[in-house]
Amino acid sequence: MASVIKTQAGYGVKLSPGENAQRPKIALGKATKRDAISAKAHIERLIARCKTGQELPTATVEWLSNVPDGLRIRLEKLGLVERSARSRWTVKAWVADYIKRRTDVKGDTVRKWEDVQGKLNAFFIDDCIGDVTQQAAKNFRIYLQTVVRLGDNTIRRHIGICRQFWNAAIEAEIITKNPFRGQAVSVRPNPSRFFYVTPEMSEKVLSACPDAEWRLIFGLARWGGLRCPSEVVKLKWQDIDFENSRFTVHSPKTEHHIGQEKRVVPMFPELKPLFQEAFDEAPEGSVYCADSCGGQWSNLGALLSKIVKRAGIPVWPKLMQNLRSTRETELFKLTGGNVKAVCSWLGNSPEIAMRHYAQTTEADMTEAAKMAVLSEAEKRVQKSAHTTTETTGNDPQENQDKTFENKDKSFNCGNLHDISEPCKNRTKNVHWAVRDLNPRHPACKAGALAN
User: How far is the C-alpha of 262 from the C-alpha of 260, rounded, in Å?
Assistant: First the structure.
């Protein structure tokens, strides 16, 4: 027969050699001795069923349905109960099945999920989805940071996708808790990764582009502020209105929001020659402006990195996003801060624009410094004028002070002789206030300085 044993956490059950040759221990956690005795009886019935095939009593069935997850897993490993759904699903199998079933999402979303899937498979290997604890989830975050070496915001997005996978398992009643719950997933602005692509740098990159199509791709990201590659590769020639100098952008990112599936953008002066050149050189029957991409997601970032290096410029962080960020910052200045117009052209909200796109440039710092210098210069001019007024004696306040001083030249030094030089000239225009030794005229009443 099994026996009840004392453990560090509470009580447990140890099987006898007749029940299991290895005499394994089954920890019950923080259980009382009475609970341990009851659990021992249920475990013996489970052992008896495995040997004889007899049905379990109702009390044991109810007890088994309410045991903690850890105890259930232990019983499964000992072969005393059937493996539950949470034990049958490994992390690898569940995530693959979930992605396969979600035929309602776009290809870009699937690519992001598959990227996270690969990292989950490498970390959890053959772990069951129900065995992933909160500590294991935190260890996965550390793995993304130290081994994969992802940025903070990228890690937050990855953890958010993991949380989505485990929430789906909860809805399928495979597990009851999400180990990724409580971890930070909201993307935060990171000013240290802002980079302002100056007009001079932009011209160098434009000159290094291999053909008219690539010059247009770069121009749309830099001067059109389009999301690249998603919006750039979807732009069609039928969306370009040369006559009215504007074009229509279809946004896969915001199309699920009512009224934000597309937007009209002005054909800024920098873009006009690029559109015309690309149109003139486009093959007959071309549909997309970036014809080589064919409207599909392309690895434009890696190709642009090579072009930037060819231009003799170090590759800046967030290569594509900072082109869009630079343009939004420029447009805020060019329009005099017309936030509504700029945000409608670039397809984001004022809040997002201020948090993730608008930059403080070196030119802003220089202009602010000039304003401070002018302010100091104005102060010096005012101070010089005031000094000149005092020298010429034209200050009305000074004349008023002299009037008061001439009313009464008599002055009684009183008790001040013991703390200052004796008053040798009683008619001298220097008088001492009794309270704080500051010069004042005799017309001041005693106690006037109390306020």
Answer: 5
Distance CA 294, CA 366 (A): 44
Domain tally for the chain?
Answer: 4
Q: Please report how many Cα atoms fall inside a 13 Å half-sphere around the Cα of residue 212, on the Cβ side.
A: 14
Burial state string for 41-52 with b = 16 or more CB within 10 A and e = fewer than 16: ebbbbbbebeee
- How many angstroms separate the CA atoms of 215 and 223, rounded? 11
The DSSP letter of residue 397 is H
CATH number at residue 133: 1.10.150.130
Percent of the chain surpassing pLDDT 70: 81
Residue 384: inside a domain, yes or no? no
Residues 6+ apart with CB under 8 A from 205: 218, 222, 307, 308, 311, 313
Please say if the pLDDT value at position 389 is more than 90.
no
In a domain, 416, yes or no: yes
> Which of 52-66, 236-250, 398-412 has maximum average pLDDT?
236-250
| 180, 315: one domain | no
Using DSSP's 3-state secondary structure scheme, residue 59 falls into helix
User: Is residue 386 included in any domain, yes or no?
Assistant: no
- Are the beta carbons of 230 and 253 closer than 8 angstroms? yes
Does 198 share its domain with 316? yes
Domain's final residue, options 188, 207, 232: 188
Q: For the chain, what's the residue count?
A: 451
Give domain status of residue 61, yes or no.
yes
Q: Which residue has the higher pLDDT, 348 or 441?
A: 348
Element housing 246 (H / E):
strand 246-250
pLDDT at 173: 83
217: exposed, middle or buried (C-beta count within 10 Å: 0-12, 13-18, 19+)? buried
Model's pTM, two decimal places?
Answer: 0.60
| SS percent in the chain: helix, strand, coil, step 5 | 55, 5, 40
Domain that holds residue 435: 395-451
Report the candidate in 57, 130, 138 with the shortest Cα–Cα distance to residue 94: 130
